[in-house]
Specification:
mainly alpha, disordered N terminus
């Protein structure tokens, strides 16, 4: 019995210990000045963009090297057009995800950080959307070349569904769960 009591007490103390940590973050956010909040938001966006930019740039580099492979010449006309569409989407995604850095350079010290954060946020969302469609296009192309068009289309749709679930569905579910907890 004492072990159960000790365990329950230990769990209660863990919950008590977690609550102040959560309150600290909330208190910190409430105490930060608008400038500190903007700087924190900008730093968070930059960190997220670093991850996304690396992946998209490697993906684009891979795509740009494909035409120089021997098997590339065996693609049908439709597969070549799909490849070109995927390359275009990947280049657009790269541009959208790198643009916030260029914007920061252009408006540095012009007291436009709030606008920069908003625009960078939207560009990142657009870049990730283009990247998801490009990856789905590559899945379609790869499965089409190896197993046929029907399997290729199914693979592309499954890839889009995966990204939609992970990048849209999961955040929406988390937000709605947080709203119901409050």
């Amino acid at each position: 019995m004492e072990k159960q009591g000790a365990t329950a007490t230990g769990q209660e103390s863990q919950r008590i210990d977690e609550a102040p940590e959560q309150r600290k973050a909330s208190d910190r956010e409430q105490r930060e000045s608008p400038e500190e909040r903007r700087n924190r938001n900008w730093a968070e966006i930059l960190q997220e963009l670093r991850v996304a930019q690396t992946g998209v740039q490697l993906f684009t580099a891979f795509l740009l090297a494909l035409p120089f492979q021997n098997r590339f010449t065996t693609l049908s006309n439709a597969q070549e057009w799909l490849y070109l569409a995927v390359v275009a989407l990947s280049i657009i995604a790269t541009g959208l995800l790198v643009t916030p850095v260029s914007l920061h350079r252009a408006i540095f010290r012009k007291r436009e950080k709030e606008t920069l954060i908003l625009v960078a946020h939207r560009l990142a969302q657009g870049g990730l959307a283009m990247f998801a469609v490009a990856v789905a296009g590559v899945a379609t192309l790869i499965f089409d070349v190896t197993k046929g068009l029907t399997v290729g289309v199914a693979a592309g749709l499954a890839t889009l569904a995966l990204f939609a679930t992970l990048w849209v569905g999961v955040p929406v579910a988390i937000r709605s769960a947080q709203t119901t907890d409050d």
